[in-house]
Amino acid sequence: MKPDITEFRKHQDAYKSQIDDIQGKLQIVRQKISNASANGPAHERRKALFKELDEHKSNQAGNRASRDKVLERVRVLHESTQRKVKDLQSSKSKIPFSSVGDIDSRIDHLNTSIESGQLRLADEKRSLQEITNLRRQRKLVDGFAQQQHAIDADRAQVEALKAHLDDPEHKALAAKSEAISKGLNETRAEMDHAQASKQTLFDQRNKLQSDLDAVYAEKRSHSETHREGMDAYYAKVNEDKARRAQRAKEEREAENAQKAKLHAEQLREDAKLPAFEPLIQDCQTLIDQFGRIGGVHVVHNHSDNAEGNQGIQGANTPLAQHNIRQVDNQVPGGTLLKKKEDDDDAYFVGGGKSKKKERGQKKTPAKATSEDKVHVPLATLTALIGLSIPPPKSYSDIESTISSLEIKKAWYEANQEKQTKENIDKAEKEIEKILSKNKKEQNE
Q1: d(CA 377, CA 212)
Q2: Measured distance CA(302)–CA(307) in Å, rounded
Q3: Which of 13, 71, 322, 328 could form a disulfide with 309 if both were Cys (CB 3.0 to 4.6 A apart)?
């Protein structure tokens, strides 16, 4: 059973209360013994009072000279304050801004005008020059607060000195002399009383110290008994925890072994799939697509490559939309995407002008050469980029694109068996690592 911590703390608090009480009494007795000695606190206070009395007498003699010095200091500070005020007013009159916030607002306004790009070059230069000047003025305005702070400090010092001069100093000196004399009498009486009862104080100190040691011994014994009980309790808790941990470890190892086995089986199944098959299907789909558009006869090596193709929706799209595998969800940098408001603008690979750029111009009949440009849908463009084949810019480039696709497809087909074997070998090595790692974890 776990020892009752509440009961333990209750007993410990009782011991601590006894210790604090005895220590308080012992401290009082020790202080009395110290006061009775020649170098005790009472003696030291008496020496300090005598020293203070000597200084007080010296201050009374030099009181008049000290007053003259204070008056001179007041005059110097007053003149210095007047000069600082004039300098500050002169500096403020040269700058049209009264605060740092006003300057920052003006700088922000100028920066906004420059960044908008609506200013002429000459106006922009003038704005930049004004910003430079404003930043210089900002440093000056920022320093005004420090100058004003120095002026206020001087004025406060002057007022303090004047208040000191107005005080009736002779009354203060007399009161201080009386306080010092009273302190000397008290320390003398304290030292005399302590010296008379010095032996009695020693006896009291020894008895209190003995009582304190006894209470400390009882407190340590009680703490040791409680600690032994807690150690026995937590030893039992740790033993139970170790048994549960061992059982959980065995269950976890069995679960991990099953997961490793399933993972190995999945790796083997994936590795046995023909390599490059999705890429070969993409190549054939693109070959069929561009073959229909360019009027090129395409020989089909696989009868099912073109299955699932669908026509593009929209009258203005010359290419058909096919079920092309998405190589990458992210469109490479540099690819022009249509906004929702630009649905009528076609994307041409070949540098053709969009309707958006021609907005506001008079409509003219389209030239014959514009009909040669090929509109490549985004899915087709993404598939070509994934195969590292440049898209055709015009109908005359379609045969070249088909040729590149056929070469790419032929290479995939030629290396399919070899790559599949490599995938199987790689999967077996990975399976071996997984099983070895799982076995090592079980042995740890």
Answers
A1: 95
A2: 10
A3: 322
Average pLDDT per consecutive 10 residues, the chain (444 residues; last block may be shorter)? 88 93 91 70 77 74 68 81 77 66 74 75 76 72 72 80 67 74 81 73 90 93 92 91 89 87 90 92 94 69 39 33 41 36 36 37 39 84 92 91 94 94 92 86 72
CATH number for position 87 = 1.10.287
Helical segments of 273-377, H only = 277-294
Asked if residue 312 and residue 191 are part of one domain, the reply reads no
Out of 142, 175, 196, pick the residue that ends a domain. 196
CA–CA separation, 407 and 283 (whole Å): 9
375 — phi, psi (to 5°)? Answer: -90, 110
Co-location of 288 and 160 in the same domain: no
Taking Cα atoms as reference points, which of 157, 172, 163 lies closest to residue 63? 172
Whether 10 maps to a domain, the answer reads: no
What ranges make up the beta strands (E) of 134-223? none
For residue 293, the model assigns a pLDDT of 82
In this structure, the chain runs to a length of 444
Say if CB 276 and CB 418 are below 8 A apart. Answer: no
Give residue 393's domain range.
277-337+370-426
HSE (side-chain half, CA atoms, 13 Å) at 443? 6
Structure tokens at 212: 């304190």
DSSP 8-state symbol, 329: S
| Burial (Cβ within 10 Å: 0-12, 13-18, ≥19) of residue 32 | buried
pLDDT score for 129: 78
Report pLDDT for 206: 92
CB 378 within 8 A of CB 347: yes
Q: Quick one: angle between helices 169-196 and 41-61, nearest 10?
A: 160
| Residues 6 or more apart in contact with residue 63 via CB below 8 angstroms | 169, 173
Q: Specify whether 165 is located in the same domain as 301.
A: no
Same domain for 58 and 187, yes or no, is yes
Instruction: State residue 320's pLDDT score.
Output: 36
- Measuring CA to CA, which residue among 150, 42, 38, 138 is closest to residue 95? 138
3-state DSSP call for residue 52?
Answer: helix
